[in-house]
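Sequence, please.
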């Protein structure tokens, strides 16, 4: 089980530098992140975009492109299409969003969904290394599915559990979060939580322990669970937080990053190979963390 991003990066180094296709590589922050990741030995980039611009920016950030494969593209759409083709043809082990927009990348992915998607749903995970917590913590979905239906939550949960298994967590502990621990018809997330727990007991999610609905304090504090009279087997030790909606996931992830100084990385799951989607506001460390995650789970 990997418990820190240092361990994730070391594991990525052991993988031997997987080939990652970068859609829209002609961006300063993008090439700086790629350079850092390559220097760490965790990736071999395949650059897709305006090759002349890529070369100019590489000089500015002191990135030696010797031996690195580049593909010319005249538009964002072409960049995304070429990068996805490299993924589809097994030339690349993963896909990374560069300067192109997220919708452009995802449209190219979905155009080949028959060949690229592992399941029926793409979902986002944030993996956090929180200074006050003893292991890596996944929050999902804070970046893809806006208001997930019960069916979509099933897909989100399956994606997250699948990734945790890849990270070496044999039986992930899942907290389905809500504001309370009882089922209230006026709070749909509590109704969904009850149904998801029943599905888990029936074996829907494989080797995982699923509880909910749980408030955040009960998920992390055995004392809170005791005071509230909640009989929880995962309190104080969850691996995955299933969020009720995208706003909750986004707020929690960014809150822990900015206020608790958590280290963070993110991926889009549900494809046969990892899709690394970097935000424009991500710092260099977050970008490298995300690349390392993609390499480890590829």
């Amino acid at each position: 089980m990997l418990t820190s991003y240092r361990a994730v990066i070391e594991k990525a180094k052991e993988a031997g530098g997987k080939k990652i296709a970068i859609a829209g590589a002609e961006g300063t922050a993008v090439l700086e992140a790629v350079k850092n990741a390559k220097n760490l030995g965790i990736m071999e980039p395949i650059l897709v975009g305006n090759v002349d611009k890529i070369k100019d920016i590489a000089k500015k950030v002191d990135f030696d492109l010797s031996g690195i494969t580049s593909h010319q593209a005249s538009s964002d759409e072409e960049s995304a299409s070429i990068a996805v083709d490299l993924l589809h043809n097994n030339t690349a082990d993963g896909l990374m969003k560069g300067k192109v927009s997220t919708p452009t990348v995802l449209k190219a992915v979905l155009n080949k969904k028959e060949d690229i998607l592992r399941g029926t749903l793409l979902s986002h995970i944030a993996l956090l290394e929180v200074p006050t917590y003893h292991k890596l913590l996944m929050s999902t979905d804070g970046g893809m599915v806006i208001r997930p239906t019960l069916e979509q939550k099933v897909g989100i949960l399956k994606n997250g559990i699948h990734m945790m298994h890849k990270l070496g967590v044999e039986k992930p502990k899942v907290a389905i979060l809500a504001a309370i621990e009882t089922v209230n018809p006026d709070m749909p997330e509590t109704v969904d939580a009850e149904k998801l727990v029943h599905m888990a007991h029936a074996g829907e999610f494989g080797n995982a322990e699923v509880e909910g609905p749980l408030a955040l304090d009960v998920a992390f504090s055995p004392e809170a669970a005791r005071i509230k009279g909640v009989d929880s087997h995962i309190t104080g030790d969850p691996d995955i937080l299933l969020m009720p909606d995208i706003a909750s996931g986004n707020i929690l992830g960014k809150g822990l990053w900015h206020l608790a100084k958590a280290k963070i990385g993110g991926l889009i799951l549900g494809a046969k190979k990892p899709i690394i989607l970097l935000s424009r506001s991500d710092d260099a460390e977050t970008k490298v963390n995300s690349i390392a995650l993609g390499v480890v789970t590829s």
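The domain at 126-266 is CATH 3.40.718.10 (Isopropylmalate Dehydrogenase).
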